From TrEMBL:
Residues covered by the HTH cro/C1-type domain: 31-73
Protein's recorded name: HTH cro/C1-type domain-containing protein
Phylogenetic placement of the source organism: unclassified sequences, metagenomes, ecological metagenomes
Signal peptide positions on this chain: none
A GO term, aspect molecular function: DNA binding
InterPro entries recorded: Cro/C1-type_HTH (IPR001387), Lambda_DNA-bd_dom_sf (IPR010982)
Length: 75
C-alpha cells in the first residue's frame, strides 16, 4: 500500500491518502461523474465572485483527491 502525506490547505492538518485506492477509484469512475464535477466547478466559479468560497474549495479537494485538475474536469 502506497500512502501520501499532504497538508490540507484549509485546516493545515496532515492527511494520509492511500494512493492505490485513489488510483483504483479514478480508473473505475465513470466519465459522467467527471463531467458533473466539471459543470459544478464551472458554475461555482461563475456564481461566486469569491473563487475561494467553501463550496469551490470542497470541489477542489475532491478533484485533488481524485488526482485531476478542475481544468481537466471542465474539458
Amino acid at each position: 500500500m502506497t500512502t501520501q502525506r499532504t497538508p490540507d490547505s484549509a485546516t493545515g492538518k496532515v492527511i494520509r491518502r492511500n494512493i492505490d485506492t485513489i488510483l483504483a477509484a479514478k480508473e473505475m469512475m465513470p466519465k459522467e461523474l467527471y463531467s458533473a464535477l466539471g459543470m459544478a466547478a464551472s458554475s461555482y466559479s461563475l456564481m461566486f465572485k469569491n473563487a475561494g468560497g467553501p463550496k469551490t474549495r470542497a470541489l477542489m479537494r475532491i478533484a485533488k483527491a481524485l488526482g485531476v485538475s478542475i481544468a481537466e474536469l471542465t474539458k
